[in-house]
């Protein structure tokens, strides 16, 4: 088998660093979710690390930084909300990604859902999950949670995060 020269070139490797990891993952398109919880106040943040872990029992996971303003509530919450955003929700994703933003003020529309978890309006799908583990992972925690309720009936196409910006699928 003959390999063309452009396929043999891999480029100069860089040493592992936070910048290398961020640069590589800018090339990875990820779905956009908002994670919510309620303690003394409702909290939430935009996440691109959401994963399905298992079907039986139904488990999900996501990462959250321990320096995040949401972490103190997430660290103690028994239940969290997971919201899959649609391409029409770039502004909402930005609000929940911005430090210091009033995430639950106008124009955010939400209601109290199962287990008292804030549930966002107009999302493609949402889940309420019971937290079963918080696993240390560097400056983050990986939260594993079991699904207890949800609704997959939203309409639209998913919002994506790629190369440092929110974007949409193209056909």
Automatic annotation (TrEMBL):
Range of residues in the leader sequence: none
Enzyme Commission number, as recorded: 1.-.-.-
UniProt keyword list: Oxidoreductase
Alphabetized GO MF terms: oxidoreductase activity
Pfam families documented for this protein: Flavin_Reduct
Start and end residues of each Flavin reductase like domain: 25-168
Gene3D superfamilies xref list: Electron Transport, Fmn-binding Protein, Chain A
Name of protein: Flavin reductase family protein
Organism expressing this protein natively: Streptomyces lateritius
């Amino acid at each position: 088998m003959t390999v063309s020269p452009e396929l043999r070139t891999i480029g100069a490797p860089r040493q592992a660093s936070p910048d290398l990891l961020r640069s590589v993952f800018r090339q990875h398109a990820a779905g956009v979710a908002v994670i919510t919880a309620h303690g003394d106040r409702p909290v939430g943040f935009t996440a691109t690390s959401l994963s399905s872990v298992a079907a039986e029992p139904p488990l999900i996971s996501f990462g959250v930084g321990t320096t995040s303003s949401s972490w103190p509530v997430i660290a103690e919450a028994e239940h969290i909300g997971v919201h899959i955003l649609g391409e029409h929700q770039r502004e909402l994703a930005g609000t929940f990604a911005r430090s210091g933003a009033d995430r639950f003020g106008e124009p955010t529309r939400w209601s109290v859902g199962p287990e008292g978890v804030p549930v966002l309006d107009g999302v493609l799908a949402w889940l309420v999950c019971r937290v079963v583990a918080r696993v240390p992972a560097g400056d983050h925690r990986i939260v594993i949670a079991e699904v207890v309720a949800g609704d997959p009936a939203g309409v639209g196409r998913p919002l994506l995060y790629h190369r440092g910006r929110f974007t949409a699928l193209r056909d």
